[in-house]
Amino acid sequence: MDEISTGLDSATTYQIIKYLRDSTHALDGTTIISLLQPAPETYELFDDVILISEGQIVYQGPREYAADFFAAMGFRCPERKNVADFLQEVLSKKDQQQYWCQYDYPYQFVSVTKFAEAFKTFVIGKRLHDDLDRPYNRKHNHPAALSTSNYGVKRLEILKSSFQWQRLLMKRNSFIYVFKFIQLLLVALITMTVFFRTTMHHDSVDDGIIYLGALYFAIVMILFNGFTEVSMLVAKLPVLYKHRDLHFYPPWAYTLPSWLLSIPTSLIESGMWTLVTYYVVGYDPQFTRFLGQFLLLFFLHQTSLALFRVMASLGRNMIVANTFGSFALLVVMILGGFIITKESIPVWWIWGYWISPMMYAQNAISVNEFHGHSWSKPFADQNITLGEAVLTGYGLFKEKYWFWIGVGALLGYTIVLNALFTLFLTILNPIGNMQAVVSKDAIRNKESRRSDRVALELRSYLHSNSLNGLKLKEQKGMVLPFQPLSMCFKNINYYVDVPEELKKQGIAEDRLQLLVDVTGAFRPGVLTALVGVSGAGKTTLMDVLAGRKTGGLIEGSISISGYPKNQETFTRISGYCEQNDVHSPCLTVIESLLYSACLRLPSHVNDDTQRAFVEEVMELVELNPLSGALVGLPGVNGLSTEQRKRLTIAAELVANPSIVFMDEPTSGLDARSAAIVMRTVRNIVNTGRTIVCTIHQPSIDIFESFDELLFMKRGGQLIYAGPLGSKSRNLVEFFHSSRGA
């Protein structure tokens, strides 16, 4: 189970993990779970722990001995420190030194590789090694334990599923196919008027050459119409490679349906061209000649589709594939026997003539036309017809059997090219590394050169920025100054209409109350946490205060620095960082922020001031080293999750707000990444802004980095509102004073 706690509060996560532990013990099962920022009580539910860093297993064994292993290495977990957070941070170069406990020896950074080697000599590591060396008794094997096939279902089922998937893709891309049909129809209509039969004659060799030009243009258009396969296939390749590597289906299960489902397309396009142009241009009126031209164009279109699929699967990149496709199109056209006749092709290029599909198509379609009745009149005094004279004069083959040679050659090309398409999908991998950000090695080199800059720990913030003597940093040299503002709210109630579906289930009320008499305040330079179980109304309260709720009934008063809140002006001095990070993947970090600043800053701010302010914000959220990095796609390339979160915060800060709302800024992050984000948030608070965050499953360090707390319970009721105090003393005393706590 991968990160099942994301978006859940600590209590809910604890209950889920406890249930999984009990069921695993009762059913004698095996459960593996990866978690981000597990609470201490949740961490203690596990039996074993696997600690992985940089692709190496640092520790694998009983949970209770994990801290002992690092203690033997000279690193001790402090009191009131979550062991799970300690295990992550002790492997970090920036955080490792604070846990060094062997003061008699100078501290030296211990790399992940050294930890992994030391674990092999640790008692748990030795025991694990001995267990792995002991052969497993095959008598205990279950028949379903070993896979006998790479794929989960039979080949026929895979083929059926692939056919359904391909049909669905064709339906979704129907606009492209309709556009191709319309485009081909328009070109056919133009061709029909250019080579109109009233101006076309069958009296001389020159007339025959004009007909050869019309036939050549037809096969060029059919050949070129398959070029769209390049862009369509390149767009699908990432998904195809992913499915192939995960053994969803073999490559032939994609190529075979795509080939068979392209047959109707080829029938429509070749039939449309032949129907529109054949009799209007004035080709030989015999119906068998009409069918022959249709058959030739059909197989040529199939060859074209297969050829450009091969180019796309070989190029694997839009630019490279388009280059390959254009080059292939150019070669087969030039060496097809019309632009340059066979006799004019140099000896060292004659092999290209014989392997060009265009040559077989040109000869076959020409033989089909010029052996017709319209061209059967004798030519001069020679013992040949006019049609044969045209073919011979242009260097084409005149034998009738060349029609079937052309059909067979195009069919063979279709089969061979589709086989190559399958082969390339099987053996080739995506081109290059898709990572758009600076490599880790480059980052490490930069960090080593900046050795004088050490990580600023959250605990130091607690001492230097606590409410007891909090001094806001002077806003000296700020490019765009702002006015620090406070927000007060009193007796906030929020109601929503009950849906008809719930009323049918027995709910009698017309309105459902989500917030109940919530009162509090947010102050400049004070970092406020909004916490509570899932469904307590944290995000709802923040949305109501930010003016993002467009429905329902809101009661109570909200004031900004003593003045009643006006939503039209409030949006200019506030920012809202959503939980989901939505950014353009094609922009760099600085481009994203400049674009946001251009849209949201007042019009009187010039470009130089905007850029200076953006650079100031980037320094504030520590994005300067990544200014030129592409944002990329989440989970695919570009910025990491933690870097995207900081970019989301920066995108709101470039609007120069006085009040910023943040919805779960640490959700989906591990303890190390969450600490980096919260360090950024603290930097923002120190400028004098008012910051409010909803937060789930905070570690002790992250929780104590907040100055004040609003604690809500399920039903939208406020339990506690006030300062945390040193080591959360005020909050603990409040609960101790409550009966039964």
TrEMBL record:
Membrane topology: Multi-pass membrane protein
Keywords: ATP-binding, Membrane, Nucleotide-binding, Repeat, Transmembrane, Transmembrane helix, Transport
Domain of life: Eukaryota
GO molecular function: ABC-type transporter activity; ATP binding; ATP hydrolysis activity
GO terms under cellular component: plasma membrane
Pfam families linked: ABC2_membrane, ABC2_membrane_7, ABC_tran, PDR_assoc
Residues spanning the membrane: 175-196, 208-235, 256-281, 287-308, 320-340, 401-425
Main location: membrane
Keyword Transport: yes
Cellular localization per UniProt: Membrane
Keyword Transmembrane belongs to the record: yes
Family matches, as SMART domains: AAA
Positions of the ABC transporter domain: 487-739
Family: Belongs to the ABC transporter superfamily. ABCG family. PDR (TC 3.A.1.205) subfamily.
Record protein name field: ABC transporter domain-containing protein
